[in-house]
UniProtKB/TrEMBL annotation, chain A:
It comes from Brachybacterium endophyticum. The chain crosses the membrane at residues 46-68, 80-98, 105-123, 129-149, 161-181, 187-205. Keywords: Membrane, Transmembrane, Transmembrane helix. Pfam families: DUF6320. This is Zinc ribbon domain-containing protein. The keyword Transmembrane helix applies. InterPro entries: DUF6320.
UniProtKB/TrEMBL annotation, chain B:
The keyword Transferase applies. One of its GO terms (molecular function) is transferase activity. It comes from the Bacteria. Residues 143-170, 210-252 are annotated as: Disordered. The keyword Disulfide bond does not apply. Residues 241-250 have a biased composition (Basic residues). Keywords: Transferase. Residues 155-166 have a biased composition (Pro residues). Residues 210-223 have a biased composition (Low complexity). It comes from Brachybacterium endophyticum. Signal peptide: none annotated. This is Alcohol acetyltransferase.
């Protein structure tokens, strides 16, 4: 083992100079009990900053749209492209973020896409296309997608039953659109509600105990 | 469909999640140096056997709406060679992984644990069992020609850690007698079958330690002892120190890894020095640490008070078999005189003054209200309905406020007494923790007393002063340092 005369201490490993005071060591080196680990620079912080900046820009873009007016005559091609790019970027960010938890990611996408479509509909003069078509179709597709996911992708126990039932719960919401007469074409909403109710009924019958267990765990007080 | 056992994470453990950062990963490390290079195959077998007996270590951490919770998992730990920096992150939000890892490097067996899962004492129980299993298997391998060797039988429970490891550390879920372990814990619904017994074992092992106490009657053998088992975060039992606290500053390591420097010294030499100073080893070392920080600071300026947090293992006062976090921290401080050479600033005088400050706070009577308060907080209806992200924010703020009141942290796990055949195969045992401020962790085994300094900064001046204080007193010290800067790493690369 090498020694540092200034510190009067033995220095383990293959140091040429004392790691404490920098003085030249003397004696024979001994095997290092600690490995030399190359420096690693994580891109996580950079990615986090990029995501936050992106989200801030997207939120700003959506807010600015309000000031630019919400009549069809005020909503030109430029604003469509602008909003389209923002929406695409938002969906991409969410898809990347939710890639490890597909069921949860799907639910989040359904919520975001539904809200963006409704807002877009409002900005273009409110023709009810969002509530008549976009929201029910997105919800129904998500319910079917989650059913396919459950059969094809390995998932953590309880994950599907929670997000599957939440998505199906969201799928019942179009019944409100129907009852309040907010839709121009009732078929998509009716199909969505039917699919949602059927899915919920199947989940209750087949996995009611598991649902209670999972929700009890996640909402535990 | 498999319904997994789960237990919500207590507030004391929640603080580790709220305080976790890229710099301070809230991971602690216990390692043991064997007399021969480690055999990874045998270590894996030993780990598999030990893992079966510790249901708590099967846990993954998940996020609920109001709480984090520990959930049983099917994941199996794999032994790996040490390739990363010390105390590298173990928990990442949204990723399900075990909250501990076992590694090896040359003669060392290394256990790293996320602090929200367990404290130092709990980690030591696991390491003790792992080392015992490993030692038995290496003996068996050496004497493999002898037929009917019984070395692969399950190991007895660890018997000599400080405090002695309880029965929960050594039970097997396959042999579980519900009454034998459940008597310390909340009454649970009895179910039959192996899986439900395992679920019960998991739920009991993962339950917050104070909630398992049968009242707050202290252990009859409880005596004030400065051995800490936590690693520096917890509820503060200290008295108020009105003066402005000196905080150590430095240059962060390039990739934010923890700077670790291990010091090894003979136990007898250190004990005789601490005895001569009239203080316990922990207070003696803390005094040297504070003096080393002063000496390396280049002048304390207006902030002349240095404070240290010292975790105290509550199991020594309130018997508990839980391996979960069960410690309180006591804050002690010393104000250096503006005039150099004051007799009160001699390390011996500092250690006696720290001892006088620490001792009245480290006993069952002083700590009982803290544990009672903890249980009250855990059961507070108001806190229960606060959503988890808000809890994280509040606890993060509480932690940041605590950090401003601390200069350094120290933790002493005390003397480890391993059962045979582990005792004869293990040399020194080391203990260290990720750090947001300069910190040391001490532990001893046999004649090897180790003090490992960790810090988020590259500077080693305070360690240099600490080592020179010891060597000036005739205590021989060996130093092992991990390379953290580009310059240091280039030395070995070139």
């Amino acid at each position: 083992m090498r020694r540092c005369a200034a510190c009067a201490a033995g220095i383990e490993g293959e140091w040429d100079r004392c790691p404490l005071c920098g003085a030249q060591l003397f004696g024979h080196p001994s095997p290092d009990p600690l490995p030399s680990v190359p420096l690693r620079f994580s891109r996580r912080r950079l990615l986090r900053i990029l995501v936050l900046v992106s989200l801030a820009l997207i939120a700003l873009s959506f807010v600015v749209q309000l000031w630019l007016g919400h009549r069809p005559s005020q909503f030109g091609a430029e604003r469509s492209v602008w909003l389209g790019v923002c929406t695409m970027w938002l969906v991409t960010l969410m898809a990347v973020r939710g890639r490890r938890h597909l069921a949860r990611g799907t639910l989040q996408l359904v919520v975001v896409i539904s809200l963006v479509c409704t807002y877009w509909d409002y900005l273009t003069g409110w023709n009810s296309w969002s509530l008549s078509f976009a929201v029910p179709i997105v919800c129904a597709c998500a319910i079917v997608a989650l059913a396919i996911l459950e059969q094809t992708v390995r998932h953590e126990a309880g994950e599907h039953v929670v997000y599957g039932s939440l998505t199906a719960g969201l799928g019942i919401v179009p019944i409100v659109f129907l009852l309040l007469g907010w839709v121009t074409t009732p078929i998509p909403s009716a199909i969505c509600v039917a699919v949602a109710l059927l899915t919920l009924a199947m989940l209750f019958v087949e996995r009611g105990g598991e649902m209670r267990h999972e929700f009890g765990k996640r909402l535990h007080l | 469909m498999n319904r997994r056992s789960w237990v919500r994470l207590d507030n004391a453990s929640n603080i580790f999640l709220a305080a976790r950062s890229d710099v301070d990963t809230k991971v602690f490390r216990l390692s043991a140096e064997m007399d021969e290079p480690v055999d990874p195959g045998i270590l894996q077998e030993a780990l598999d056997a030990t893992f079966e007996r510790f249901p708590l270590y099967h846990a993954v951490l998940r996020r609920g709406v109001f709480w984090y919770y520990l959930q049983d998992s099917d994941l199996r730990p794999r032994v790996e060679p040490e390739r990363g920096p010390t105390c590298a992150p173990l928990y990442q939000a949204g990723r399900l992984g075990l909250l501990f890892r076992v590694m090896h490097h040359r003669r060392r067996i290394i256990l790293e644990v996320f602090h929200a899962l367990s404290d130092g004492t709990g980690g030591l129980w696991f390491l003790t069992d792992l080392l015992t299993e490993y030692a038995q298997r290496t003996l068996s391998a050496a004497a493999s020609s002898v037929p009917g060797d019984s070395a692969t039988d399950p190991a007895p429970g660890p018997s000599g850690t400080v405090p002695p490891a309880p029965e929960i550390a050594s039970f097997s879920p396959y042999e579980l007698e519900p009454d034998s372990f459940a008597h310390y814990f909340r009454r649970r619904r009895r179910r039959s079958g192996r899986s439900s017994r395992f679920a019960d074992a998991f739920a009991s092992a993962a339950a917050p330690a104070p909630l398992g106490l049968q009242g707050l009657s202290p252990s009859p053998s409880a005596d004030a002892r400065a051995d800490g088992s936590g690693t520096g975060t917890g509820s503060d039992a200290g008295t108020g120190h009105p003066r402005r606290i000196h905080r150590v500053r430095g240059t962060r390591t390039p990739d934010l890894r923890t700077r670790a420097i291990e010091l090894t010294m003979p136990t007898s030499a250190l004990l005789s020095e601490s005895k001569a100073s009239g203080a316990s080893p922990t207070m003696f070392l803390t005094a040297l640490f504070l003096d080393a920080v002063r000496a390396s600071s280049g002048g304390l300026g207006a902030r002349r008070t240095l404070s240290a947090s010292v975790p105290v293992n509550l199991r020594q006062f309130f018997p508990s078999t839980s391996a979960r976090n069960f410690f309180a921290t006591i804050r002690i401080a010393h104000t250096f005189d503006a005039r150099p050479g004051s007799p009160a600033d001699e390390p011996g005088a500092i250690s006696r003054s720290l001892e006088a400050e620490f001792r009245p706070q480290a006993n069952a009577r002083a700590l009982a209200p803290k544990v009672a308060r903890f249980i009250r907080v855990e059961r507070s209806p108001l806190l229960r309905i606060v959503p988890r992200p808000l809890k994280d924010l509040v606890l993060g703020w509480v932690n940041a406020r605590e950090n401003r009141r601390l200069s350094v942290a120290v933790s002493n796990l005390g003397r480890v007494v391993l059962p045979e055949p582990a005792a004869s195969q293990v040399g020194r045992v080391l203990f260290q923790v990720s750090a947001v401020r300069p910190q040391f962790c001490a532990i001893s085994h046999g004649e090897d007393f180790t003090v490992t300094f960790t810090s988020p900064f590259t500077q080693t001046d305070h360690v240099r002063e600490f080592v020179r204080s010891l060597t000036d007193r005739g205590v021989p010290v060996r130093v092992a340092a991990a390379r953290v800067t580009e310059h240091e790493l280039q030395e070995v690369a070139g």
